[in-house]
Amino acid sequence: MRVLHLVQGYAPAIGGTEFLVQNISEKLVEYYGDEVRVLTTNGYNCEVFNTFGQKTMAPGEEEINGVSVKRLKVFNKTAPFFNLAQKALYRPRLPFNHWARTLYSGPILPGIIPEIIKADADVVSASSFPLMHMHYAGAIKRLKKIPLVLIGGLHPEDKWGFKRKNIYKAIRNADAYIAYSTYEKEYLIEKGIEPKKIHVIGVGIDSDLYENADGSDLKKKYGLNGNPVVTFLGQQGGHKGIETLVESMAPVWDKIPDASLIIAGARTNYSSTIDDIISKLDKDRQKKVILITGFDEREKADILAASDLLASPSGYESFGITYIEAWAAKKPVIGCRSGAVPTVIDENMNGLLVDYKDKQELTGAILELIQDKRYSSRLAESGYKKFQQNYTWEIVAERFRDVYKQVAKRADGKTR
């Protein structure tokens, strides 16, 4: 099968969607011998789509682990104009405000037109909204008559990002939609999307990587031996709840002075805010906050191996891959009763849930997992079993490919 993936970034770009598409692409090549081509941007993150001065990669084509990857140069010179336009149109909810927001979000890719013209595949798959490349994928379907699968990534709580008519029109026009959670599926059904079009598939994790991880070197490096370690894992985005987590650690430190907090993930424009919050702690507590950036998957697994629990109190997630990674490492997790997270974490069965920005509740959950080792271990073991049954790459890649095969089969016999 010939598959064309469109995605906002590809390794070494970092992010949940980037990680998913990279692994699905590589597993289709490795497990099934499929021919996979990826069209992506030359950005390391989405900030380059509308912010000047961001670091980028060289555009061009290369092969990575059997996958053909073409990076297209982002054009962001019009971002200031589209920013003014979307502000003027969005606040009074004027017509075309959804397209103004989409054009500002980007990526605008002048080089995509020749790629659309020459596109040739059995199926096109694109992820994720609310970005502009999802609509480029729709153009490939219309012009080249190639069946289209759109992959999840909806955060309904983010009204600016996802309350856009053009998103749901694009989904209705696609041949299939892969949702990360039942929460996302139910939301789309309310939006009028046909239930039979929506396939719920989570993300995959390399089980061997996490089961064989060793956090001893990291503990030694940061002087963590014998001390409880609370870890946040993910990009330092404004909605991730990192500020709440740092502030929630104060009562934890009052009771457990030797506890440490690891914040591991790529820096963003919001990182300066996090730095400022940490700088306001007293000197001794500042030393207990460990910032780790620029690590690979092996190091990520070791970070979790060195941790006692994962606390990711995000305001919204389309899935929450870090919870699965923590389960794969047999660690208990804390998430929020928000977005898709409650459909991933079964409260009090394989993790704890707290209200978003509720510092007192988050403190209580952290203390409970640190102090009650038996309860913590039970949650971790239950999470590990859920991971094994649903989220290995063998399982996830097969489910993705089954959807691709279905839409390609339905297209057989039609004019292409």
Overall description:
This protein has 416 residues and is α/β, with parallel strands linked by helices. It has 2 domains: 2-204 and 392-411, Glycogen Phosphorylase B (Rossmann fold, 3-Layer(aba) Sandwich); 207-390, 3-Layer(aba) Sandwich (Rossmann fold). It has 19 helices and 14 strands. Helix 15 crosses helix 18 (373-390). The protein starts with a strand and ends in a 5-residue tail after the last helix.
What are the salient characteristics of this protein?
6-stranded parallel sheet; Rossmann fold; 19 helices; 15% strand; 14 strands; globular; 2 domains; single chain; alpha/beta
Task: Note the topology.
Elements: E1 2-7, H1 16-32, E2 35-41, E3 60-64, E4 67-72, H2 79-90, H3 97-105, H4 112-118, E5 123-127, H5 133-144, E6 148-151, H6 159-162, H7 165-173, E7 176-179, H8 182-190, E8 198-200, H9 207-211, H10 216-222, E9 229-233, H11 242-255, E10 260-264, H12 271-279, H13 283-286, E11 289-292, H14 297-305, E12 309-311, H15 321-328, E13 333-336, H16 341-344, E14 352-354, H17 359-371, H18 373-390, H19 393-411
Parallel strand pairs: 1-2, 1-5, 2-4, 5-6, 6-7, 7-8, 9-10, 9-12, 10-11, 12-13, 13-14
Antiparallel strand pairs: 3-4
The main β sheet shows up as: 8 strands, mixed
How big a fraction of the residues is strand?
Answer: 15-25%
The total of beta strands comes to: 14
Biggest sheet, strands in spatial order? Answer: 3-4-2-1-5-6-7-8
Return Rg in Å: 21 Å
Task: Enumerate the spans where pLDDT stays under 50 for 5 or more consecutive residues.
Answer: none
Structural class: alpha/beta
Helix content: 40-55%
Mean pLDDT: 95
Indicate the overall shape.
globular
